[in-house]
């Protein structure tokens, strides 16, 4: 990509911010869902990460819609900031967590030089943001948990959740938005067959 196509337009910033703020509100609400479902996963606590992928969607959706360096990182980070401002139960820790998660998705798009936005790339972005989330959790939230019986299954299930919900789900959401015409000012909307 040449330098002019990497430049963010005003509309890129506005739409990325709308995506991020919408997901920030969802993040806050998803924290309530997370707390409410802890008992349902008491039989095997790492299994709760099967619903983790919702927190990773803005990184993938932002990357698929904006298609420029930094979009995945920006959307995930701003969503985390909004969540913290709304009173996330994890307070400000969600902000560095959002940065780390956004970097995971960003690496997938960068690996293809911001030229591939098909389903396999979205799934990889989901998987890498899941991996980055699991690594963050290893060192912040799960430091005192048992490696084999908790941390490894936690990481694997987080990656699965992120691949399916954030990666594939994010791709489907972007495609659905493109089909409505709201993304016509973006390559994701103009190239609907390629999304």
Commentary on this structure:
It is built from eight helices and no strands. By secondary structure, the chain is mainly alpha-helical. It has one domain (3-194): Orthogonal Bundle (Arp2/3 complex 21 kDa subunit ARPC3). Helix 6 (119-140) runs antiparallel to helix 7. It is globular. The two termini are 18 Å apart. The relative contact order is 0.15. It comes from Micromonospora profundi.
Main attributes of the structure:
single chain; 195 residues; mainly alpha; Arp2/3 complex 21 kDa subunit ARPC3; 8 helices; 69% helix; 0% strand; globular
Major β-sheet profile: none
Q: N-to-C SSE series?
A: HHHHHHHH
Give unreliable regions as ranges.
Answer: none
Q: What name does the CATH topology carry?
A: Arp2/3 complex 21 kDa subunit ARPC3
The secondary structure category is mainly alpha
Based on CA atoms alone, the radius of gyration comes out at 16 Å
Question: Count of DSSP E strands?
Answer: 0
Domain module tally:
1
Mean pLDDT: 91
> What CATH architecture label applies?
Orthogonal Bundle
The residue fraction in helices comes out at: 55-70%
**SS field, number of helical segments:** 8
User: What is the overall shape?
Assistant: globular
First-to-last CA distance: 18 Å
CATH class identity: Mainly Alpha
